[in-house]
């Protein structure tokens, strides 16, 4: 049987480079978070997506990203010969893994930490190109589920017949044993994320097959909804599409434009007025809502939001903050708020949300706190409301450790810690709840809770019994991954509860692994390396001779350590404040002559500079004039530390405390015979001019003033 006739046409009247017609319907299965039904020629595929949701198995939880679980199956009636086993066969397992790997590369997995996304593909009728059809269906279903992606994958299967490459082969063309390649690309560009081959492909024919596949994917991925714009979706437009605020991409073929089974009637979104359009559609979407156009000015929009009554506010929350197919509801608005233009809009919504009449549920608390923490968005009225609702739920006894709500409690505690909330009453209540249910809490969960409390610099006396028992029962076998084990040991170090046995076992177990990871991928693992150095410093200065060599870590500090350490320390735009402080410091004590360059100290601390001060004469001493081994009671070696606002609690009534590992860093620097002098951005911002700031820095350095807020003796 000839696949291509003498006139250059295939059996279904297509040219070699033409793709079969495609039609689809999104939202075909209401019970799923996202779904799609797709017909690609005679191949019919149904796809459902569930999630992001909590992982069913705690052992599979990824602390840094979500996991993708894909299942491929074929209906028993999908092929002429009835199948006895619709799923679980070798090919199904292989295709499932291919789908997982392909979509892990485009889904923004970092936005959905500690969660899972399930993808189910069912081939209802197999007429060739089954895997490619499933990929296209999954892309539509993921868009319908409201999952953030960096781009959409389109796929097509190509084959080589008598040396002629053919796109999108049907099952009749499969009857010939021809080499076939399934190719998937992102946004129709030359970025290949899926490549699966069948039969033997001659190396001289492979380039033509690949070119055919890429071109076919490019045509398949064209969006009919906006044909003038074929650029990849940026994150904001992706969220709009995922939030059902614009029509899903419609597939366009090389031979003809396909007609979607179900057309969307939603208006086209102008990305310049994204927030306004979201709120306008959210309000107009309900038949009971106000049928009015919101003005396209910020002040007019704020006026309209503030004018909403309670019923309209509830509807706004339901359609924007609580859409059924978007798990991290507040992220829709918070991603918009990441563009500074919309921060005022978000503040207005939060102001309205603050006066919402009923107490927030535990799950609503978790969602809002985590979302605000993800974008470092601290809004004082909202935080006050969240604290009050949390304490009310605490009074009602909602945080029983045997209940699934206790996982929610963990996320809320982590959110308060990341938001840098300064409220001793709040943290006292959290510590009381942890202590009360301590014996019912699993070891790894206990480690994360204590780590959140330690990062918030919660007083050790509030958790003394829990910390002592945690240190006594600390066992590396209780941890599923190295990062969790490292976090547990780091928590003990921050609370001065590290034991010699724990330090020896953890450091000897993790040292070689983390050092190897830092050599291979320094940018991704340097934070872990710094934490390991801090644990080792705690073992050296606070314990009695643990069996671990501190010199091993000092000698292994990479050459570019300070640049990597500064990237770890100064996040969320705080590096600019360090640069300003560095310029002020070097104007007082010139670099190299009186002030050493910033470095990563052997204690794992970032030291922004070292200065020698003669206390008797109240003057700076040249670095060259004093030998490092010489001891002089009048000469003090000062370690200059600068901490941005992100390294302290948000001040209430002018008071703030250092958080995370910085109190521990200062302890260790003192033990290393340095005198740390801490400068905090809050203090410098209060001064009116650079001259005042220079005078303040000079005076504190000459007085060797090492006092800092939040120090626990």
Automatic annotation (TrEMBL):
GO CC annotation terms, alphabetical: cytoplasmic exosome (RNase complex); nuclear exosome (RNase complex); nucleolus; nucleoplasm
One of the record's GO molecular function terms: RNA binding
UniProt-annotated location(s): Cytoplasm; Nucleus, Nucleolus; Nucleus, Nucleoplasm
Biological-process GO terms, alphabetical: nuclear mRNA surveillance; poly(A)-dependent snoRNA 3'-end processing; rRNA catabolic process; U4 snRNA 3'-end processing
Entry-linked InterPro entries: ExoRNase_PH_dom1, ExoRNase_PH_dom2_sf, PNPase/RNase_PH_dom_sf, Ribosomal_Su5_D2-typ_SF, RNase_PH
Domain of life: Eukaryota
Residues covered by the Exoribonuclease phosphorolytic domain: 18-147
Family as reported in the entry's similarity comment: Belongs to the RNase PH family.
Complex and partners: Component of the RNA exosome complex.
Protein name: Putative exosome complex component RRP41
Organism: Ditylenchus destructor
